[in-house]
Description:
Layout: E1 2-3, H1 7-12, E2 16-20, E3 23-28, H2 32-41, E4 43-47, E5 52-57, H3 61-68, E6 81-87, E7 93-103, E8 106-111, H4 116-126, E9 133-136, E10 142-147, H5 151-158, E11 159-161, H6 163-168, E12 174-179, E13 183-188, E14 197-202, H7 207-218, E15 223-226, H8 228-237, H9 294-309, E16 320-326, E17 337-340, E18 343-354, E19 359-366, E20 376-381, E21 384-391
Parallel strand pairs: 1-3, 4-15
Antiparallel strand pairs: 2-3, 4-10, 5-8, 5-9, 6-7, 7-8, 10-14, 11-12, 12-13, 13-14, 16-19, 16-21, 17-18, 17-20, 18-19, 20-21
Helix pairs in contact: 2-8, 5-7
Amino acid sequence: MTRSPLHHEHVALGATLVEFAGWDMPVRYASDVAEHTAVRTAAGLFDISHMGEIEVRGADAAAGLDAAVVSGMARLAIGKAKYTNLCTRGGGVIDDLIVYRRDWDHFVIVANAANVETVTAELVERLAGLDASVKNISEDVSLLAIQGPASEEIVAAMCVHGADDVRALKNYTWCTVLLQGDVHAMVARTGYTGEDGFELFLVPDDAVEIWRLALAVGGPLGLIPCGLSARDTLRLEAGMPLYGHELTLATTPYDAGLGWVVQTGAARELTRPGLDGAVGLSEGRVPRGDFVGREALAAAKAAREAADADPASASEETRVLVGLVGASGRVARAGYDVYVGDRLVGIVSSGAPSPTLGRPVAMAMVHPVASALGTAVEIDVRGRRETMTVTALPLYKRAS
């Protein structure tokens, strides 16, 4: 297994380590509930160095990404980031990504740990022939996340230069800072917990120093180290999909409630920000909307709209993502069947006890007839039915 540069820090803190996507990662340090609650009330520190990073550079980088992913990237401003999906020609999700624009010809993409090699290969193929290079730079990057209401104060206090820039960041924007210890970092206001938070991109040699700095600065404000278990329950409460659960090659963004990331729009020529004229490509110009999977996703969108208008008319295989909340009882785990009466209507994609709500919660892919808010469904939990209610996602949303 691959070890994070912070492996010995985790061992020293008494973390329980597990294999995750080929990495030896901390699942918890002491208490799942305590770590989850710290993020909701103060702050949590996560080692997410297992995530993959891919660099795309070149004059055609923006145009190539426009044609490769389902969201337009040519008009993404320097200093901003965008969440998107990489889909097959049939519309299935290969991975969900965050794309950061570092310069007009330079993007950094964060992919899921298990998918980084697949995503890299897909981008290499899709950008072939363009003036753009694609490189997996995961070994050159360590990624830390500081999440929670106190995260802004903590990250700003860690800075020698750039504290005001950190405070000024909007959601899905980034800046560069100088941290204590003369460490340079890219800081993005992004995360995967449903709370305000930041992700710090570092070179691996600086990871231990900044991990210790974050604990020293953040400790008095309630920050504690957090593992994968808390990260999972936090994202579940926040209704954030996880690849391999809500997102798969068999699901489209529309199935998973992510239709908003698909940007077809009117066809237009791509323009390079700050320069005149269209971006020239070796095989001609690519109008926005002509991306891999566009036709299949247009059909998926039409099918979703028809199913929403008349759920009973949807094919038996049609599924839509919903939230579920139980009054009490055993937890619905991923893979458990969902019923309305004797009819099998779907399957649980993620489930856990909710530390914030104090009840079992889940997300499930169900037939549209079972997707209306307030619908009572039954989950087969190891041979016994547990009742849960269809609830709007996210199941938790921070006050501001």
